[in-house]
Amino acid sequence: xxxxxxxxxxxxxxxxxxxxxxxxxxxxxxxxxxxxxxxxxxxxxxxxxxxxxxxxxxxxxxxxxxxxxxxxxxxxxxxxxxxxxxxxxxxxxxxxxxxxxxxxxxxxxxxxxxxxxxxxxxxxxxxxxxxxxxxxxxxxxxxxxxxxxxxxxxxxxxxxxxxxxxxxxxxxxxxxxxx
Length: 179
Description:
Strands 3-2-4-1-5-6 form a six-stranded mixed β-sheet, with helices on both faces. Strand 2 (55-58), helix 3 (62-73) and strand 3 (80-83) form a beta-alpha-beta unit. Helix 2 (33-48) crosses helix 3 (62-73) and helix 5 packs across helix 6 (117-125). It contains seven helices and six strands, in the order H-E-H-E-H-E-H-H-E-H-H-E-E. The chain has helices spanning 3-6, 33-48, 62-73, 86-89, 92-100, 117-125, 132-139, and strands spanning 9-15, 55-58, 80-83, 108-113, 146-151, 164-169. It is α/β, with parallel strands linked by helices.
């Protein structure tokens, strides 16, 4: 049995944390105070569950970059980070194309992106099921939510129904009364 077969690759699809709505172009929207609390909570959740990525694919939008910086600060590792324009403007198929180019040596990939593309990607990849994580993803994919998918095959061979959604979490940070 190969190491890849014994330990399938894992994809974590994280929607950026809550963003503010100042009068700036969409790509420059920063995180809101709630997002600044939730992003580190997502990082702690990843760390505590042993899900630190060895590759991060992140949209170049400010709110996704800030989300990753706050998540990454909680992990203690420094994975390779790729800022990909298609993770900002693209849909699920664009995200899938980015994932198919991941080197097979990468075992845990974190994709930080935007709704609706992140939700659509998870629904595209996940084997159709009626369990609790699948139902929650279909109902709502809130900010700072993370879907964890096991990939029994290769990154290059990833396609519709080619992954198993194993977990869906919405880590939240402590709120101040003003949040």
